[in-house]
Design goal:
The structure holds two protein chains of two kinds. By secondary structure, chain A is mainly alpha-helical. Helices cover 77% and strands 0% of the residues of chain A. Chain B starts with a helix and ends in a 6-residue tail after the last helix. Helices cover 72% and strands 0% of the residues of chain B. In chain B, helix 3 runs parallel beside helix 6 and helix 9 runs parallel beside helix 10. Chain B has eleven helices and no strands. The chains are: A mainly alpha, B mainly alpha. Chains A and B meet through helix 1, helix 6, helix 7, helix 10 and helix 11 of A and helix 4, helix 5, helix 9, helix 10 and helix 11 of B.
Chain lengths: 314, 263
């Protein structure tokens, strides 16, 4: 199932990209008055852009099957795989951290507001969640930068390391990195918070109404036991799928917050490659992004099976 | 619902009356008054070229609404047609369309939009169409589900028995029943499209200056982040209020049209 999906994704991207007007060689030759038509042709041949699109796709596919993502069109001419690999850990680290925060914050909020439905807490979180759905994350990032970075001066506003990083001690380096990560991770987590907490609340309300919860109460179990053992586990199940679906959002969002916070991750590389029309790098990142998403969905499916005995049986 | 429709109506009025409401010409450059903080003359301050931020925001409302409506229109059109075909005919047609939906869903959509727009010229029409082309999947699923449950109803069999064509059954007998959910999806879709447009414009590949949009005013806000907070605060607030308005309206419509969904 995953292979045809990946094929479909890469075909769509490849064709959309190559059929769009303009070519990467234009950017390199436009500004150069010495560039002759013949030279442009040579450049196109070097990048294999002179062949029909489907041939280009097949040759790309052949390379991919050998694990070769090609060479970047940018002036450094480095292998795409190398360029992506040095940036991927940062993006994954931030995505995982924000996913962790989303779960750690949204699940309790959802559960509490369902258990105490119509309480003050429920109403306040409902308003916050509603606003959370509507806040543009890049705007939130700007406001946080202004407040914590410039007004209070507590946190750095760009990059991953301070200028004096080299001269810091081991622990200070960690603290430095952590300080640089706080704002980006918070911003990228924020979008998911609203969705998941809303979803958890709805699930929990649904579950609490079920007969087996009444049975559990009738058995004389403590309320704590009923909620956190019997209800929560069942309410968590559908949320796992939602988390799997959240991964494309996190990866897509990385373009925005990595560009804002100047974090050297995959999103920033993507933005730069798109601007430079670096086809091989763009295709590479799209492919890695799609694989990450599919792996995320797979993990979600597996953890679904772990959490739900009914699925394991069938 | 009331608050939502109020906000949406207010924005419509503002964007229609933009030429009369805006206190200044949004493109009027005043180099003697660059990055002036909010004052009585310029309520929301001026930008890096001395242009009045409030006026630019009022004109920006037009852009946002235009993008929201057209992009959503494209998405709804594609989503409805594909969903109807998929649900009504079933079989391999359904299988192919649903696989395509899966592909589009497990894709970091924003990456795709970014790639395509950067290659095409970033004009407002391209943006609207691309946002529409990448946002139809939810509608397809909705419409398909409606069609699957409705096509076995007695009145559909009756329509078939008297010889109604497929197109007639799809558009006149089944589709009207999906209108409620499509309308809700459209309202929420407008909010999403406005958010996407502002993010693209913020990154510099959406609506291009000098045309004012909330997103590209925020870009100026980022460039002058340490001196001009008003450039960052107000346009974002406008986006927030607009999106809240459409979300409230969408949920309100859902509650009215389909009381079963009411929580």
């Amino acid at each position: 199932m995953m292979i045809p999906l990946l094929l479909g994704i890469t075909i769509i991207c490849f064709f959309v990209m190559h059929l769009a007007p303009g070519s990467p060689t234009d950017l390199q030759t436009e500004m150069n008055p010495k560039a002759s038509a013949e030279m442009k042709e040579r450049l196109r041949a070097l990048y294999e852009l002179d062949k029909p699109v489907h041939i280009q796709y097949l040759s790309w596919l052949k390379k991919i099957s050998r694990g070769d993502l090609g060479t970047s069109f940018s002036t450094d001419r480095r292998p795409v795989a190398e360029k992506i690999m040095e940036r991927l850990p940062v993006t994954i680290l931030i995505s995982l951290l924000s996913l962790f925060i989303v779960i750690a914050v949204a699940v309790p909020i959802g559960v509490l507001s369902a258990v105490h439905k119509d309480s003050l807490f429920d109403k306040v979180t409902a308003v916050i969640v509603f606003i959370g759905f509507a806040v543009p994350t890049f705007w939130l990032a700007l406001l946080l930068m202004i407040f914590f970075g410039i007004h209070l001066g507590w946190l750095p506003v760009s990059g991953l390391r301070s200028l004096n990083y080299e001269y810091l001690g081991f622990w200070e380096q960690w603290v430095d990195l952590l300080k640089h990560l706080i704002l980006p991770v918070f911003v990228s987590a924020f979008g998911g918070l609203a969705g998941l907490s809303r979803y958890m609340r709805a699930n929990m309300l649904e579950v609490i109404r079920q007969d087996y919860i009444m049975t559990a109460r009738a058995k004389g179990l403590s309320e704590r036991n009923v909620i956190y053992k019997h209800a929560l586990r069942n309410a968590l199940l559908p949320a796992i799928t939602i988390l799997g679906l959240a991964i494309p959002g996190l990866i897509g969002g990385s373009v925005i917050f990595e560009t804002i916070f100047a974090i050297p991750g995959m999103g920033q590389l993507f933005y730069m490659s798109v601007m430079a029309r670096d086809y091989p790098t763009i295709m590479g990142i799209l492919l890695i992004g799609a694989i990450l998403t599919l792996v995320g969905n797979l993990i979600a499916d597996v953890s679904y099976a772990v959490a739900d005995p009914r699925i394991r049986m069938s | 619902m009331l608050a939502g429709s109020g906000l949406v109506a207010l924005l419509l009025v503002i964007s229609i009356l933009a030429p009369w409401l805006a206190p200044y010409d949004p493109g009027q450059i005043d180099l003697n008054n660059v990055l002036a903080s909010p004052s009585m003359e310029h309520w929301f301050g001026t930008d890096q070229l001395g242009r009045d931020v409030l006026s630019r925001m009022i004109w920006g409302a037009r852009i946002s609404l235009k993008v929201g409506f057209v992009a959503t229109g494209v998405a709804i059109l594609i989503g409805t047609v594909l969903g109807a075909i998929s649900g009504y005919y079933g079989g391999w047609v359904d299988a192919v369309i649903m696989r395509f939906v899966d592909i589009m869903l497990c894709f970091p959509t924003f990456f795709l939009i970014l790639a395509v727009i950067a290659f095409l010229k970033p004009s407002i029409w391209n943006i609207m169409i691309i946002i529409g082309l990448t946002g139809w999947m939810g509608v397809t699923r909705l419409v398909r589900a409606d069609f699957i449950s409705l096509k076995e109803r007695d009145y559909i069999h009756a329509a078939k028995a008297i010889g109604a064509s497929d197109a007639r059954i799809i558009f006149l007998h089944i589709l009207p029943n999906s209108m409620a959910s499509i309308l809700v999806a459209a309202t929420l879709g407008i909010a999403g499209a406005i958010l996407t447009e502002s993010a693209l414009s913020f990154l510099g590949i959406g609506v291009q200056p000098p045309t004012p949009s909330w997103g590209n005013i925020l870009t100026a806000g980022k460039d002058n982040i340490d001196i001009a907070w008003w450039l960052s605060l107000y346009p974002g607030l406008a986006i927030l209020v607009t999106v809240v308005g459409y979300n409230l309206l969408g949920e309100g419509i859902r509650d009215i049209l389909d009381p079963r969904l009411k929580k």
